[in-house]
Every structure is written in structure tokens, then in C-alpha cells.
Amino acid sequence: MTISAFVVPVLLCVVTGCICAILLTIAAIKFAVPVDETQVKIRECLPGANCGACGFVGCDDYAAALAADHSIAPNKCVPGGASAAAGIAAVLGVDAGSAEAKVANVMCSGLNDCTKPEMDYQGYKSCSAVKQFFGGPGTCKFGCIGLGDCTKACAFDAIEVCNGVAKVNRDKCVGCGACANTCPQKIIDILPKTSRVTVGCSSHDAAKATKDACTAGCVGCKMCEKTCKFDAIHVEGNVAKIDASKCKNCGMCAKACPRHIIHVVPKPGTAKPVVKVEAPKTEAPAEAAPAAEAPKTEA
């Protein structure tokens, strides 16, 4: 076998590779999409959660909109908070504005031991699906269905179903609103994280119907409304509602509520007082009395 038998195939491969490289280079130049450096810098400031809390499809869409229109507020990213807003503002040369931290709140206290199922539902385990079936399986048609559509929607593992009701982990929640948008009952509210007093009920039934459906439902007695000194809580539609802008987090309404459905979230870092239990004092055993001598008998 001659040397040309090896050289020719190698040369063909080299020439073919060079031609392909030239064609790819020409195609890359001709069909190149111009990159907006401002958009790239803004995207680097965003956390990449793609939760949609900003009102856009995702982080890329929000970054593109900001780069194209500087009038859009740079503080719409809820998960990114103040740090993301400051970074975007620095890139655009605008004022960052205030980015208030928010948190989700489930307005339901109807645990499994507080209410009863109205039917034994055996279908597809989805809150949205059950909602279409006579309004849900529970006696209360306003409460948490508890099949976890919100937990599936949360990208931060901040909400779980405990004892039949969704519960939010405030330390993990970023207030993106994905759970609230998913909930078919619309009982998840997005509040400022500074709001520590919340109403755990969404029932609009009259008092008797609420009592029959759930032992932890608001009956609209207005005791909370009468107790509040700041005009921050009112009964509307047979259920108490708090105005977060007026609430001072004093907790007086929670103490006045006879149904115990107004909850006060402890301040961060607040520890419960430790009650020291002293060991019971034991008295020293009394000294034994000397044994009486036996009477002497004469012989």
C-alpha cells in the first residue's frame, strides 16, 4: 500500500473541515442576533426564579422589557427584593424605589379536626379538579381543599399541606404569588412581611352556617372590630378583614376573638420564655424515736 492511500483521505477530511468552518462562520455572521448588553446586565441581577410575580413571563422577559423601556419600575422582582432592585437601578441609572418584602398567608384555619368532609372524593387529587365537583368535598365551601395545588406551584418549597390546610413557611416564602394564583378557592393573600396579625378564615356564610361547617370559622361577631383602637379590622361579608396599612400588630383583636381564628406571628428572633421548674423540696427524714424499754419483772 502506497503513502498516497493515506494522504488523500486525510487531505479530503482537512479540506472538508475547512469548508464547513468557513460556511459556519459566514452563517454566524449573517444570522447573528444582536445582543443588548444592558439586557444581559439586568438579567444577571435577577434571581432566575421565573415566578411571574413581576407581571412578565419570566426573568428574561422582564429584563428585555426593562432594557427597552426605562420607565418600567426596577423593583418588581419580589424574590430578588431590594438587592435586585438596587442592581437593576445601577445598570439603568434610575432610582431603585422601595422593594417591600412580602409573604403569602393562607386565610383558613379549618384543620381536619375542625371540619368534616361532605363526601368521600376518590377522583384526581387536585384542588382545581375537586372545585368543579360540587364546590369541593368539605362542608365549608370557602376553606382550603388541601390537595396541594399550591405546593406544586411553589418553586421555593415554602408551602405544604398540614392536617388538611396549606401552611406557609415565612422564612422560605418570597411572596411571588404563584400559590395565590393557583389556589381555586382564592384564600391565599400576599401581604407585606411586616404584617404579623392575620385572619385565618375566608367564609362568607352567616354565623349559624359557619358554625355548622367549621368550629374554627369567623362568625362576624365584631368583637375584634370593637377592640381595635386603630380602625384596622372590620367585618365585611360576614368575615373579619385587616387593613395592613393601619394595623399596628398589637394583637388585641386576636385576644378578643372568641373563635381564635386571628393569629399573631411572633417577631423574628423572639423566643418563648423559658419557665424554670424547680425540683420539689424534700424534707429530711425525721429521726427515729428510741425504742421503749421492756418493763422489768421481779423474780
Short description:
With 299 residues, the chain is α+β, with helices and mostly antiparallel strands. It contains ten helices and eight strands.
What does this structure look like?
With 299 residues, this protein is of the alpha+beta class. Helices cover 30% and strands 11% of the residues. It has 10 helices and 8 strands. The strands form 4 sheets. The protein has a two-stranded antiparallel ribbon with strand order 1-4. The chain has a two-stranded antiparallel ribbon with strand order 2-3. The termini are far apart. The model is unreliable at 271-282 (pLDDT under 50).
What topology does this entry show?
Layout: H1 4-30, H2 37-45, H3 59-68, H4 81-92, E1 102-106, H5 127-131, H6 149-153, E2 159-162, E3 165-168, H7 178-182, E4 188-192, E5 197-199, H8 207-213, H9 223-227, E6 233-236, E7 239-242, H10 252-256, E8 262-264
Antiparallel strand pairs: 1-4, 2-3, 5-8, 6-7
Helix pairs in contact: 2-3, 2-4
